[in-house]
Amino acid sequence: MTAELVRGQNHPVSQSRVEIRVSAGAPVLALASLADEQGRLAGSEVLAHPGARSLPGVDAPAELADRHTFAVDLDAVAADVHRVGVLLVLPPGGPVRFGAVPASHVAVAGPDGGTEIAGYTLTGLDAETAVVALELYRRQGAWKVRAVGQGYADGLGALLADGGLSVPAARELAAAALRTVAPVKEADATRAALPTLVGDVRAPQTPAQAPASVPEPPGPVPVSGVPYAGTPSGGDGSPPTISYTHPRRRRTSSEPPEPAPRPAAAAEPGQPPRPVAGDASGWSMDERLYNQVWGMFEDLARTAAAYRSAVEFADNRMERELDDALSDPRHRLGGSGNAARDTARARREELVAQAQAVLDRDLAQLVAEAEVVEPALPAAYARWDNPVWHGHRTPEEGPLALRLGDLHLPERPDLRIPMLVRLPLERGLWIDNGRTGSEAAMAMDTDRLRRAAMDMAVAHAVRLLAVHPADRFSVHVIDAAGAGAASLAPLVRAGVLAAPPAAGVAGVSRTLAELTRRVDLVQMALKAGAPEDLPPDVDTAEQLLIVHDFPHGFDDRAVTQLRYLADEGAAVGVHLLMVADRDEASAYGPLLDPLWRSLMRLSPVPDNHLADPWVHHAWTFEPDVPPQGSRVLDQALDRVAAARRTTRP
Amino acid sequence: MTVNMTKGQAISLQKADGGTLTAVRMGLGWQAAKRRGLFGSRTREIDLDASAVLFADKQPVDVVFFRHLQSDDGSVRHTGDNLVGGVGQGGDDEAILVDLQRVPVHIDQIVFTVNSFTGQTFQEVQNAFCRIVDETNGQELARYTLDGGGAYTAQIMAKVSRVGSGWQMTALGNPANGRTFQDLMPAILPHL
């Protein structure tokens, strides 16, 4: 997913070859500046411009255009270059300030048309004629990109002068950069005739600021030092301000500026604001989407509660009125009894119709919200049929939460709420492959049900592997009888398991002993306050243990170890995913009840066993499995395997 | 333009432009007990609680108070219990927000009450007030001053009830005694 940056925000750039894509509101020059660790432009090769297009690692575009694409090879830039600035400059004779042209968008993308890594929309510009849009910078050996979005009303010369060049040198370089560009032919002769490096025509020009003598570095500026402390606004010396608004959000919600948390605050009564993905609080888009999904979950629970309580009330009132009508001696003669009964029924129908109308209104709003939210979800939250999986890449950071499936209520079965749980998982998961668990399971034959349960477990494992950085997540499998081999084949084929699925009693005890040792060592290290002192063979990545066919192959010692992992593992990054039929462990009697209770039960078939935390409706859980014939799992696994090969060659 | 409502006065919750109200807030504010002496922490704090009881056909069906901060349908929300009051600056120390559009259709009356949980009567509380605010624009619709209100520990403040397709508010201002809203039920019922 593309990270949409706001001013001052940074984002890791994992590739060394990247492509800079500029989409400006008017024809601009796109240049690249090279600076050292302190942000000073030093030496002769500091600016890639149309007059000198190629510098080591950077090729700036030659022409004036509103679309630019150029490549940066971060491995090729000189070792003393720590900052590569992407500059946009308005040409002489064109628009005189960035405030007068539509906002430009700059993105860092993979090479040769790869997907975008990070994008930034330059908003809030005013009198600037030359801006630093983005900066690629080296931090502890790794490259990152930062959204800068700051500029100079006095143009490229002032920008370069502030970068440390002497004023005459800066002026000369700026003139050289702009010389090659033919002035834009404008009907407005007065604007075209304006000197090039000036700035806002409306700003009063004192002789000292006249372009002929570009003065000392202009006042409001620091690009070096703290580049994102303020936005130099024009040359008027007004205090710098930072715009923290998210450019993308502002643009997508064309209606009321901020859709308020309550529908009551709609701009016009009866016309709720059009829902927008990410319309919730949070530091990142992922967190906002997570909160938005939970907000939808709560709203649907409460809306259904309002409807159900109204219908229940209407039913009870009708019963009471019918009873009254029946017991009233006056109704024994004549037809008045019938009339009273009809009235009671009509009163019920009226109230139910009102409740239905309100329900329909709320559901329509939630459906509209789901329609914008679902496509915007990142891979960790997305359904397997979401296109985001096709462009998915191994991320730099682990996800905030994970989608386990869908939830819906009988009032609107097609309105699916993603069931998101926070990571790391606080509780283990238990996929119930027993036929006695639910009616839908009862209707399936055992083999198909078991296969479905194991497929679901594998899908979860693939999702967890794909949404974690390479090497930050390991999967172990215990499949004592080898009964899950068909489902596990994709994991085995891609070679992403920590070890081949453990079979037999020996395999079970070996896997459990290894994980038990890890939990114990990590716990000890954490208690001692020395997590870095772990033995080198201890894998510090998050671990997932899939246990199939419990309790086959488990002796008492192994059962105890499994319970230890269930109790202690989650806190130190060892998570349990059981695929089991509780009835098969019935020989243990009530001894294992605490184990089952400590796990979150999921079912491979639709089952209404989950309750929401607010009003405790029974929600129907439906697993999310890849569409029939889809290769999305294999593709995700291939990418995980490829990413691992690059991180540990 | 605050209306200081008198007991029993009813106002229709219509906006000046003719639209009906969509959200109201009942705000409750009071001044914390004065600290005094060496052991200031032993000063008896004053804890007033705001509650809202939802009625359908004169039967209570849901209640929003400090132990149940949101009605099951989500339309009535309590912003949380304040145990000590404010500093008497006129802000709401506790508030109950009602989203009138989302109130379930069978709920026809909502009664707002104030109780003194710590048992002080309104004579001992300073700068206590209760007000009803149009939540969409912050305009105060009605205000009661509680302090000096006599030796009572509770007050049944107001009710909003359905009239036609809209809502109207009736100021009740009925003094009563009780620690929580349960104690007030007998006093509430005659007002329905």
Characterize the main sheet of chain B. 6 strands, antiparallel
Kindly state the number of beta strands of chain B.
Answer: 11
Give the ordered list of helices and strands of chain B: EEEEEEEEEEEH
Q: What is the CATH topology descriptor of the largest domain in chain A?
A: Lipoxygenase-1
The level-1 CATH class of chain B: Mainly Beta
Average pLDDT taken over every residue of chain A: 81
Q: For the record, what CATH class of the largest domain in chain A applies? A: Mainly Beta
Terminal residue distance of chain B: 28 Å
Instruction: Order the strands across the largest sheet of chain B as they lie in space.
Output: 1-11-10-7-3-4
Query: What is the distance, rounded to the nearest whole angstrom, between the alpha carbons of the first and last residues of chain A?
Result: 26 Å
Structure classification of chain B: mainly beta
CATH architecture of chain B: Sandwich
The computed structural class of chain A is alpha+beta
Report the β-strand fraction of chain B as a percent range.
35-45%
| Contiguous helical run count of chain B | 1
